[in-house]
Every structure is written in C-alpha cells, then in structure tokens.
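Database export, one record per block. Field names are fixed; values are copied verbatim from the stored entry.
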Amino acid sequence: MLTVTNPQFCVRWLTSPAGLVAALDVNTGRMILAVKSMKEVAVTAKLRRYFRFYFVPLRAGDKTTYGLVTAFFDDHDEPLTICTPLFDLEFTRDLLQVLSSNSFDVHFFNENDRELLCCRAENPDSTRFRSIAAGVRFVPGNLELARQFHDDMTTSFGARSAADDKAAFTVKLVETFSGSDLDPHIQNPGESNERNIAKALRRSFGSDQVYWNPARADNRRGCIGVQREEHAIDSDQGQSGERGQPESKPDEEEVCCCCTY
C-alpha cells in the first residue's frame, strides 16, 4: 500500500485533484502511477485486469501536440475515462517515463484519497510508446488551453474508431498486491463507504458537527448524522424579562441530516 510505504508521496497526492500522478518509488526503484478517481474505475480495473491509454492529437494554434486519454472498459462503447492534458511540464515527463516502462506499479485511490487497489502492471508495447513519445513536442500550458484540450479529447475519444482502439496501448494488470481495500466496496458498499460519507459531509459542515456512530450489534447498521446549532429568539414583548427587550432562549441543537448504511 502506497500510503504505508511512501507517505511522502501521498502528501503530494493528497493535494492533487483527480487524475494521474507519476513518481519514482525511492524504496524499490520502480515507477509508480497513481490513479485518483471514483471507485468504479478501480472496480473495473480489478475485474477486467487491464486498461488502455490513447495518445490523442490536439491543436494549439498552429502547433500540433498530444493529450492522454486513459480508458477503463466497464462498457466498450462508453468506458470510464480520465482525460489528461499534457504540457511542457515536469508532470508530463514523469508520466511519460512511467508509461514508457515495461513494468510499473499502479495504485488506485478514490476521491477521498482512500487507497483501494494496488497492482503490478506491464506495458508489452512500451518500445512503440517510447518511439512515439520521443517525437512529441509539448506546448506551454495555461488553464484556458487545458479546458480546450479536455473538451477536444472528450469529443475525439467519443468518435474513436476500431483503428484507434488498435493503436492504443494496453496496460495489463498482472498481479494484485496484498492489502488492497477494494473487496469490501464490492461486497458491502454501504458499510465500506461510511468513512467516505463522513468525509464528504465534513466538506460542508464542521468536523465537530458530523457524528459517525458505530454499527449496531443487532443488525450491523450504523448512522452518520450532522448536528447544527440554532439560536432562537423570542421577540414577544409580553414574554420578555424587560419591556421592549427580546428574551433569548438557550441555543438548541438538532440533527438536520442523517443517513444509514
């Protein structure tokens, strides 16, 4: 598990948005590809034992460059995809180095930075990838161009042909490491996602307002609730201690959101 063996890498990963991040494992000398997306991506990778990446040609003004679409085939016509704009940055060079390797390790995280699956991967077509990547020139990036590239890749991939699938690079997942945390999500998705639900609620409410109760002993069901404070004021002058002065009541608490699993 990357969160145990490379905590310094995970600190960097926790600050990254969803997508791909590549790095060198300083403990083993192997390249790492971290995939951060919804858990369905990890489930598809585990069941299919492969994923593909496509080099998609793009236009930046009068220049030709490329982006990367990573596809996980839960459905052949509309697979789960991650579109990655590539620019003249260290991030791109790290990513190309991983995908140029004959063998590397892939770690799947969900949106809440929980590691779900880690696999040993092989790219049997790495020689061809290195040959293509060596001839690509990337342009300087900015937010507007990144959005344009993302839209262009989505459109291009949606219209892909059988020839595009044949030209894609297939990464095979040949071994699953011990410690993977994905099986509970498949067998019991409610209970296994309780941590994710609590973390998502804490994005909108204070951490001291979200209560995560343990599972009941009789039915193994639990509850996550959000408690809020209400400041009630009685403005009736007849009820006030002094005429013309509103009487304040003590703060009241109530549960405004509750979900069971």
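Remark 1: The longest strand covers residues 50-60.
Remark 2: Residues 143-158 form the longest helix (16 residues).
End of record.
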